[in-house]
Amino acid sequence: MTNNDAVPDKPDMKPFSIAVLLLAHLVAWTSRGADIAANNAPIAIDSAFTNQFTALKQAAGFVEQSSDDPQNDWSPYLQLWVGVKAVEGKKQTIYFVQLTTLATPEKNEWSEPWQPTLRTNHWSWSWSETNKPVTPKRAQFVSPLYPVRARVFDATGKALKEGQTPMAWGMLTNGLLDMCRLSMELIPRNTPTNEPPHKLSDAQNDQLMQAMGGGFLWMMDMFGDFQSVPSVADVWEKARCAIRMPGAWSIIKGIFTGFSINLQPRLNEVTLSTPDGSSPPIYRLPVDLTSQRDKLTDVEIIIGPARGAEMLMSGIRSIRAVHPSKKNREFLAQVLATGSCPAEK
């Protein structure tokens, strides 16, 4: 954005392998429990997941969350099931990922009452209609971290690996939802792609930038958290099938300037995925994943309000990624169910 530069306090992501993990972390969380149509019909589960998932749910003692349960507070043994599918022509790979919030200790290492670690991020941006230098504005986001276990199963339901990672829970969860809502309210739908919003007041721009900061910093943190779980990282590696390698010139240039991966939301193209006026609103957000001028993949994120274990995924309901020139190469992950599991002894 020319006049509206938003910069997170995060290190630049340069290796191409980061693009794979970033895409896979963002790609394709489709929430089955969300109402996405006027008749409140749930999102259909991909047929590749249906048979084995039924058996996995039963074995875990999983109880699906009621559609009218407003659960938003963190608690142990909330559970999210995700189906992952990577398609490369006629070859198809299937995984199931189980995310479970875990019980926390009563005391910390100093025998004091346990408290979650707090993660602090900053997001800065500047706004100028005249391109004159301005003092950047800054927002601070603080999130508590709680332990989450990730288990991976293969297409037959066989347990493969598991690991643990701290993940954020809190108010920033709906930053992406707010970003989509504000973009539809403030940015005309006929503005050119990837150009900054025009004629926004300072207050309106600040609202939009803070929502973007909260939402995208949350996603970056999710990406980093899952990097620490090798079992899940192996699954995410399958996202490579949907990513085109950058062109030769981008790679050569990157040797001298640093190889960068850009994740840019097309805010002027946000639309409702649900009928206008329906509740809750579900938004469709197109995102460009690029390197230099090379488009690496086609990405579309579906975003709605989060509840229960969906809080872990910041309201992301789905993302579908398709290779830009090889349409038979696709990466999909689908949240199959949200609920709870029996407490562990």
Describe this structure in words.
The protein is of the alpha+beta class and 345 residues long. It has one domain (4-340). Helices cover 22% and strands 32% of the residues. It is built from 6 helices and 13 strands. It has helices at residues 16-26, 50-60, 175-186, 202-227, 230-236, 248-257, and strands spanning 4-8, 63-64, 78-88, 91-101, 117-127, 137-154, 159-168, 262-265, 271-272, 283-291, 294-303, 316-322, 329-340. Strands 1, 2, 3, 4, 5, 6, 7, 8, 9, 10, 11, 12 and 13 form a 13-stranded antiparallel beta sheet that branches. Helix 1 packs across helix 4 (202-227) and helix 3 (175-186) runs antiparallel to helix 4. It is globular. The chain starts with a strand and ends in a 5-residue tail after the last strand. Residues 1-22, 24-42 and 248-257 have low confidence and may be disordered.
Quick overview:
With 345 residues, the protein is an alpha+beta fold. The protein has 6 helices and 13 strands. It has helices at residues 16-26, 50-60, 175-186, 202-227, 230-236, 248-257; strands spanning 4-8, 63-64, 78-88, 91-101, 117-127, 137-154, 159-168, 262-265, 271-272, 283-291, 294-303, 316-322, 329-340.
